[in-house]
Write a structure and sequence with these properties.
This protein is an all-alpha fold. 68% of the residues lie in helices and 0% in strands.
Length: 40
């Protein structure tokens, strides 16, 4: 696997995890939060 592919995969997983976390938090708070996507 190319290092670039690994970085892309890593970023995709990060975004997915962050979005899922944000959804979980917004459910706990009982309100919809804007999902902010940040690329690192």
């Amino acid at each position: 696997m190319d290092i670039k592919d690994f970085t892309l995969l890593s970023n995709t997983n990060h975004i997915y995890f962050q979005n899922e976390l944000t959804k979980s938090i917004s459910k706990l708070q009982g309100q919809d939060l804007e999902v902010e996507i940040q690329l690192y």
